[in-house]
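Customer escalation, tier 2.

The customer says the design service returned an amino acid string that "doesn't look like it belongs to this structure." They asked us to rerun it and document both sides in this ticket. The original structure tokens are below, unchanged.
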């Protein structure tokens, strides 16, 4: 099976990701990887960190002459900001006075700061916040670029767009995948397909920045071209919707995941929820609605997979909230770390990466093969059988 492991701290020397299980022969474009990294770097609500970093990816292993060779792929992204942190992030032992000066003792509400120091018996919150930081998603997006190129070789595309920031929500439902895919090129700042709403979102983010507050929102991600039959209704832990939900919930600041019209469906009768099946000459079967979001009973049904992730507002506020010092136990104001105002526009590419990972793993699980050509042949045979 495909799996990946990220490593590195937010202000450490670098971030790395190792991807294991990709078949040999997948065409990999470094330019394609960097295009995905750029999506994560730009967007309304981004903080000052993106003025420092370039997030250039170096390929250390697993790719030769532009194709995967079946061995683990290792990617490295240098943290340019590391040089500004001196001994604060040193891997070597430091004098007590250096450690004391670098120590963070004021955990932020809404973050894992306090739970982390309690779990690992730390006296320094920085040991927690450096790894828990959303900077880690840089490595996920790099891995996601590999998965998306694997899926593209199998005729599967993934894209996302912003459907809510704060109280501002997209009301339209009359859009398709082409609209979603075009959202980044049309408006890289918000990635909202409605131009008037996008301007309101930008204004809201600007106003929130002035108030030194933060905003959450909702990102919707689509995958098209996904074949019928990925996942399982037989085993609870192989249901694809469960795997997707876990992967997307693992993204920093995500507090809820919805597949299809899951939330709306809870308040409607079944006659207004379930997607009726109709004959289709080329595919055998089709549906003229997709309220299930492409998954029924834990198994893909051939319709576009549509998932939404709900991001809470970022935990670091420039007008800090009340907390308790972990050493003195006295009431204080929380630590202020450099941070974004709103992650939502940039968060879509992270959702794309995680959805691409789950789908890539499910495809290898179902169709096997050590070489991309073998997987392509297996899919063609399978699709011909189920028509």
């Amino acid at each position: 099976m495909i799996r990946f492991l990220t490593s590195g701290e937010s202000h450490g020397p670098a971030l790395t990701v190792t991807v294991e299980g990709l078949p040999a022969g997948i065409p990999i474009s470094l330019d394609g990887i960097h295009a995905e990294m750029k999506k994560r770097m730009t967007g309304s609500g981004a903080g000052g960190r993106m003025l420092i970093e370039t997030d250039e990816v170096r390929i250390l292993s697993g790719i030769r002459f532009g194709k995967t060779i079946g061995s683990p792929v290792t990617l490295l992204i240098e943290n340019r900001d590391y040089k500004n942190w001196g001994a604060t992030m040193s891997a070597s032992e430091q004098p007590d006075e250096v450690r004391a000066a670098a120590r963070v003792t004021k955990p932020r509400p809404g973050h894992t700061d306090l739970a982390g120091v309690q779990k690992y018996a730390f006296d320094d919150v920085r040991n927690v916040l450096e790894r828990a930081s959303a900077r880690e998603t840089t490595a996920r997006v790099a891995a996601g670029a590999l998965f998306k190129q694997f899926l593209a070789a199998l005729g599967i595309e993934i894209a996302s767009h912003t459907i809510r920031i704060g109280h501002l929500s997209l009301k339209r439902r009359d859009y398709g995948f082409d609209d979603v895919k075009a959202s980044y090129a049309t408006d890289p700042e918000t990635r909202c397909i409605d131009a008037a709403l996008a301007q309101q979102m930008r204004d809201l983010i600007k106003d929130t920045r002035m108030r030194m507050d933060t905003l959450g929102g909702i990102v919707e991600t689509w995958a098209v071209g996904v074949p019928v039959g990925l996942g399982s209704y037989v085993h609870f832990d192989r249901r694809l919707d469960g795997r997707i939900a876990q992967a997307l919930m693992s993204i920093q600041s995500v507090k809820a995941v919805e597949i299809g019209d899951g939330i709306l469906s809870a308040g409607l009768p079944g006659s207004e929820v379930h997607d009726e099946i109709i004959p289709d000459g080329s595919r055998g079967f089709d549906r003229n609605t997709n309220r299930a979001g492409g998954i029924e009973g834990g198994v893909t049904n051939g319709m576009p997979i549509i998932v939404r992730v709900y991001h809470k507002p970022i935990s670091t506020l420039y007008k800090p909230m009340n907390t308790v010092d972990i050493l003195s136990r006295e009431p204080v104001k929380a630590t202020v770390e450099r941070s974004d105002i709103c992650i939502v526009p940039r968060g879509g590419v992270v959702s794309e990466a995680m959805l691409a990972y789950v789908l890539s793993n499910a495809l290898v699980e179902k169709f096997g093969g050590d070489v991309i050509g073998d997987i392509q042949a297996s899919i063609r045979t399978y699709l011909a059988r189920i028509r």
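Tier 2 assessment: The sequence is consistent with the input. The mean pLDDT is 95. The CA atoms of residues 218 and 310 lie 5 Å apart. Sent an explanation to the customer and offered a walkthrough call.
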